[in-house]
User: Fold these one by one.
Assistant:
Number 1:
Amino acid sequence: MVQPETRLHRRVNAHLPGWVHAEKTNNPYRAAMPDFYYEGPGVVAWIEYKNLAAWPVRATTPVSVAKHCSKRTWPRQRIWLGRAHRNGVLAAVFFGVPGGVAVLDSPALWEREWLRSEMNLVSEAEAAGWLTTKLEGRR
């Protein structure tokens, strides 16, 4: 069975131009690596894909990457992403939720809790467009 994160990254990657190097990072010796490494002309990125299968019943119940993702891997993944971000490397979490994708491109965003009404959701194509723009070197 295909995992929700796999479906999400396949849909995002389908919208990337051919010049983008996209590499799935499945490393059994380094369990906390972000899901994908991307390369453009002079810019690299680490993207972690997370998925929320369903919104909480109450719209006032906050969601977060930490609350709704693996307690085993997320603590180490957030360290990896945070270190990359501090070193000037593009690092983000693409948080798939019912209705779209939240592009969380800083520790302040991927660490916080969100109400459904606060999330700025984009389509998979728009998430790929955001990544493409960054990989072209336009910040």
Number 2:
Amino acid sequence: MEAKSQAIKFTIVTQTPDDTGIATVGFSRYAKRDEVHILPDGRQRIVIKIGKPEEMTDRQRHLVPRRIIAVAKGAGVKRLALYVDEFEKVVHNCDQTLIEFEMANYAWDLKKDPEGGRDIIEEILLVTCTADVALMTASIERAGKIVAGVNAARDLANARANVMTPQAFCAEVIRLAAGLPIEIEVLKPRDMKALGMGGVLNVGKGSASKSRFLIMKLMAGSAGVRPTMLVGKGVVHDTCGLAIKPAESAVDMHWDKSGGATVVGAILTAAMLGVKKNIIALVPLVENSISSKAYRNGDIITMMDGTTVEVINTDAECRLILAYSLTYAKRFDPRIVIDVATLTGSQRTALGNLTGLFTRDDENGDLLANQLIDLGKRVGDPVWRLPLSAVHEEQVKSDYADLRNTGKLGALAGASTAAAFLKQFVPDCQWAHLDMAGAMTAADDEYLAKGAKGACVRLLVKMVETY
């Protein structure tokens, strides 16, 4: 299972070769739109419309390289020449820009023979006489490793459930991690039953594809240093169980494993970059399907720590499997836990294609939220903090069990009540919850291929590097 794209070859040169097959790139405040000009010598010149560089937002800067790739693909260009000094005046951060080029070059499909072939940029010449070549070479290498992790997450998320079962997901992760210093353990149903992971098994028991629990350990830090825990939702397909989705909604539910794909991509990237930290990733993998064995609305489930949960809606399955993962995380005594999930439609309604961020409602939670917001802006994975308070925790109390898996007001404040439910199972440490339901796929104005966009991988990588 691989993307239908390839890595761009970046070549550092001191002048543009005399080759009409290479399109040059320029910028203009006066152009009416992004466009392609044909120069007198027959060479193509891509002109990108910009405003005043000093007035551009972080988002606008991150989109510039994606727009270049989009215009080049539309013009059938395979090779580009980019003048580094001019380009850095526009984007300010050439290192991050290299990642954006690669992300925009990605495409995923299973078409036998696409009409007109596939538009892929093969090479970008970085033209400079002033840059530090060794430093730029290092930036190219770093960008390649980060993009490999981002695109691995996109591949995992894009794969359909008839191929990417829980078992297949684990097998693919083992393949991707080959040669990296990552220890992998896969718990099967009998292992989870012995540990009391009834919620994971309940959610998955309606499917013929047996559930799995994936554990990845990168212990490259000092011995005895408490690990950073990354927890990702891995629902390979979600019919919503007996609370079944309409057909038009269910068709996209292979992306419900995007949170799991994200944490896998992040720990793979950390290993490739040689990050000297202790990092553990947990991914509960299930298919929420329908059969006579499926769990039901009204069931009461006993969780791993003894907490009882009333199932109000079988479409709120992800918080059940994440709750087990958060409880399991306690045995590692983490210093911080970040969970990532396509958790609620309410988050998408509130924020569109941004990721929602929740932390504890205290001073440490404020500090963590501010750090994640700042890092998200820097790397191009923006997050927006949403409220989580005692009011929301009251909403997930049940009349017949300790908790209920949806808020008493239904979809109202649904993202916050989902976070409040998860909070009941979090270890005693720093914690952030990222609801990426709105960010799991590329929006039309993001200049990325349709499908998974690898949201939050870069944010998590930067977080584990700097925390």
